[in-house]
Design goal:
By secondary structure, this protein is an all-beta fold. The protein contains no helices and 21 strands.
């Protein structure tokens, strides 16, 4: 759901697709998505390596027909999309995320790196389970959240070593693939997954998705609750 400014955002607890209990008020800190084209994977800012992409291929998590299909080719290679971004801090934790969905291919991956630090997770997009990982550096973390209709949001967090960083995602050959420089590498078979909504933000955990299709970083200001009652009210 997208809401206007000054309208409270609510998160409803879901168990097996059924709402359970009362919603909670979402109050997030200020965050900036430094991915300049977070939904436009056809933009030249995204490098397409041994894949082809198709726009408007399926319904995305925002309910519109605007998700991309990512199809591997038959090369023995790393099948992925790559974007280079600039961080606001050279030593802070930052988090990369993307929404992925199973197509004819079952496994997808998300990779992020900054200098010598890197972290990759491979996820079974049928079950939402992380099946493999490879990393350098310490204090890395990951999260996988289900958003319904087969969509999973993958996120990885690492410590930056400079202000230059990369986000990469695509198809993985198997549950436990071989790697080439931290990226799954395999002989493709013209199969596909779906992708939507990439985000790179300085912070130790992922916040809700910030659309940034204007060609520059996009900021969501911090949310506060004013005049909302006393502690006793809550």
């Amino acid at each position: 759901t997208t809401v206007d400014s000054n309208v409270p955002r609510l998160e409803y607890p879901m168990i097996d697709g059924v709402q359970k209990g009362c919603p909670s008020l979402i109050l997030e800190p200020e965050r900036t998505n430094v991915t300049p084209y977070s939904e436009d994977f056809s933009n030249s800012g995204w490098t397409k390596a041994d894949v082809t992409i198709s726009a408007n291929a399926t319904i995305s998590p925002d309910g519109q027909l605007n998700a991309y299909k990512i199809t591997d080719n038959t090369n023995n290679a790393r099948h992925r999309l790559v974007d280079a971004v600039t961080l606001s801090s050279s030593s802070a934790k930052f988090t990369s995320s993307v929404f992925l969905k199973q197509g004819t291919h079952r496994y997808g991956f998300l990779h992020t790196s900054s200098g010598a630090n890197a972290y990759t997770i491979v996820v079974d997009l049928q079950t939402g389970i992380k099946t493999a990982e490879t990393e350098s550096g310490t204090d890395n973390d990951f999260e996988i959240r289900y958003f319904g209709n087969g969509w999973y949001r993958l996120s990885v967090t690492i410590v930056a070593t400079n202000t230059a960083a990369f986000i990469q995602f695509g198809t993985a050959g198997s549950a436990t693939p071989t790697y080439n420089n931290f990226i799954p590498s395999y002989a493709g078979s013209s199969e596909h997954i779906f992708a939507f909504g990439s985000q790179v933000e300085v912070g130790s955990y992922p916040t809700s998705y910030i659309k940034s299709n204007s060609g520059s970083a996009t900021t969501r200001i911090a949310e506060t609750a004013n005049g909302s009652g006393s502690a006793a009210t809550f």
